[in-house]
Amino acid sequence: MTTPTLEQVGREHGFYFTASELMATQFPPPRWAVPGLIAEGLNLFVGAPKIGKSWLALGIGIAVAKGGRALDKIEVQQGTVLYAALEDHPRRLQSRLRSILGSESVPEHLHITTVLPKGQETIDVISGWLDAHPDARLVIIDVLRKITPRTDGRNAYEADYDSIGALKQLADRHGIAILVVHHTRKMADDSDVFNEVSGSTGLTGAADATLIVKRARNTAEAVLSVTGRDIIENEYALRWEPSNCTWTLLDEPVELAHMGDTRRQVLDYVNKHPGSTPKAIADGTGIPVATVQQNVRRMVKDQQLGSTGNGRYYPPDTVSGVSGVSRATDRTDTADTLAPVVPIFNGIEDQS
User: Fold this and answer.
1) Which of 31, 218, 224, 249 could bond to 73 as cystine, CB 3.0-4.6 Å?
2) 79-91, pLDDT tens digit by residue?
3) pLDDT tens digit sequence for 214-254
4) Domain residue spans in the chain?
5) Bridge partners for 70 per DSSP
6) Is 222:239 a contact under the CB 8 Å cutoff?
């Protein structure tokens, strides 16, 4: 009996081809759950505990289920959504839905579960749900740890890669976007925010895209950093809206989201009153003059303010007068280039 060759088996199952055959094949573009942010495939969504990840994930799920605007800015196409809220109970979920929806209608195409099995059973259960809902566009799993089996002494990288890899295969097989919520590790990494993902590099290595949200405590602004195979690597500014517990994509430089409240007040005042002295800023904002003096010196060093050296402060070119922009991170040069935010999303055609 002749053993089947790699080419025979590969052609039968669709994973072997020549370069000319590959180039002659017409593939449909990836389907976007949220254009520019969440594409078909496995998306890892990471942030510190209690930062508002679940609110953001639920808000996106509601937007896709209704067919509206995600993050109050990005047009999304309607599709059925499965939201696995594995750290919540029904009463809390009801309260969260009321907070986000307000007087809006309840999205009938949003399906919710608070329990999933672990390991391969997770894949089987979600696959069965997707078979029963062919119009599904997005699956949200909140959080990864709840579906990850014990490693039992296995290599951490291999265990992480396999757990994410199985979800990726599921997403690819069904042509669906899967968003998996996960935590950052405690220690920050100033060199690369994506090094802050808790666990081994097997997680980010197997995922199609990684999204990390960072927000300083007691502030409303946050920075969403994204990188992946089908998305443009970039950073975007977000703001938390406590009145309805939602996140909004901002039409402003992402640098502002890195600032604390004091610096933002100083910058706002200087934007309106270029050439102000520390005393004028203090009088206009109510911030103690010593605090203003300390902050303006640091802001000049961080290029958040300009100064002619005579004790007067001005809005720097990289911040002042720019609306609806975010710093590009995929440039190979060292220029402080700024790229549009929302037009990037609107320019991506969604293929269903």
Assistant:
1) 249
2) 999 999 999 999 9
3) 887 667 888 899 999 888 888 898 999 999 999 999 876 66
4) 27-253, 258-314
5) 74
6) yes
341, 338, 276, 340: which is closest to 305 by C-alpha?
Answer: 276
Is 214 strand, coil or helix? strand
Rounded Cα distance, 256 and 258, in Å: 5
Q: SS in 3 state form for 267-292?
A: HHHHHHCCCECHHHHHHHHCCCHHHH
The hierarchical CATH code for the domain 258-314 is 1.10.10.10
Report CA-CA distances (Å) from 131 to 42, 112, 127, 135, 318: 18, 16, 6, 9, 50
| DSSP assignment letter at 177 | E
Whether 268 and 287 have beta carbons less than 8 Å apart is answered as no
Which two structure tokens, joined as six digits, stand for 190? Answer: 């100033």
Residue type, 170: L
Longest Cα pair distance anywhere in the chain, in angstroms?
A: 91
| 3-state SS, residue 181 | strand
3-state DSSP call for residue 59?
Answer: helix
Q: What CATH number labels 27-253?
A: 3.40.50.300
Cα-trace Rg, the chain: 23
pLDDT in tens, 311-342: 899 987 644 333 333 333 333 332 332 333 44
Does this model's pTM top 0.70?
yes
